Amino acid sequence: MSTSDNRPRKQWYRKKVVWIPLLFVAYVFFVNSSYLAAPPAGSPFLLAHRGMTQTFHMEGLTNETCTAERIYPPEHPYLENTLPSMKAAFAAGADVVEFDVHWTKDGQFAVFHDWTLGCRTNGDGVTRDFTLADLQKLDIGYNYTADGGRTYPFRGKGIGLMPSLTDVLKAFPDESLLIHIKSNDPNEGQALADALQALPKERLEKLTVYGGDEPIAAVKSQIPELRVISMDTMKSCLIPYIAAGWSGYVPDACAHTQLHIPDQIAPWLWGWPNRFMARMEAVNTRAILVAGSGDFSAGFDTPADLDRVPATFTDGIWTNRIDRIGPVFPEKFAGN
């Protein structure tokens, strides 16, 4: 056979080599493009981090920083993780309120942010070394200052304001809550599961628990129907999704959970936002959009921050300033 006889076959082969990758790219685009997907129905919801809180500047923040010593000048009278602050958050427009829990010496759960007491209160020592009754005698606003210690605007106003988990569940029997275990102790997870497992199914459906891998695994083992989140559950879902989600594949680990997704990372998820949300909704999972890279619970805390939320986003938005975001939120997303 002459060289000229092979020319049509070679040309066909070259065209095939070019078109196969192009067809693959077109397929991936079609499967994952939000432009070609119907926008999801509904509007986004607001998650108020620690209720109505006193916020603080983030410069030089580390895990050891006492944030009560660097608050901004107070704009409202509420302290985080208290019943009044949670009530105010819901009144301001929150759909979900997040709060922190610590296991106490007498086997109960105190609602408080820190592992130790010295930063915020007039007490000292490790939280779990005290009984709930002892903790509730403390002034939880004792050390908050916005001017380097010259004045303490909440001193004397936080006595008896530390609630228990039981207090919160009783005060908000129908609202959605996000419970944060502040340790990585599996025994604490087991104790929390013991405290929650007697709740009726319809109540558990409005609760989510997150925290360290070990306590969350213990909670999930005992109450498999409860929505949970940890670094392990996030990785188990998102790493394989990032690897193969281009095909529409959703890992089993993504089912019935919650994903906290920084808005700087979200656009890299296959199908973001419309197809991604539809895929997660199909497996009963919701996404919570947090701000920036996700460091130190950064949230959407000014009206301008909301401009970064996709217009068709219908899952949760994390905020530390429900007092600022709640009033403008309905108008901002009125068209959804």
From TrEMBL:
Coiled coil: none
Domain of life of the native organism: Bacteria
InterPro entries linked: GP_PDE_dom (IPR030395), PLC-like_Pdiesterase_TIM-brl (IPR017946)
Keyword terms of this UniProt record: Membrane, Transmembrane, Transmembrane helix
Pfam families for the chain: GDPD
Domain called GP-PDE: residue spans: 64-329
Any GO BP: lipid metabolic process
MF annotations from Gene Ontology: phosphoric diester hydrolase activity
Gene3D superfamilies referenced in this protein's UniProt entry, alphabetically: Phosphatidylinositol (PI) phosphodiesterase
Residue stretches spanning the membrane: 17-38
Record protein name field: Glycerophosphodiester phosphodiesterase
Organism for this UniProt entry: Brevibacillus agri
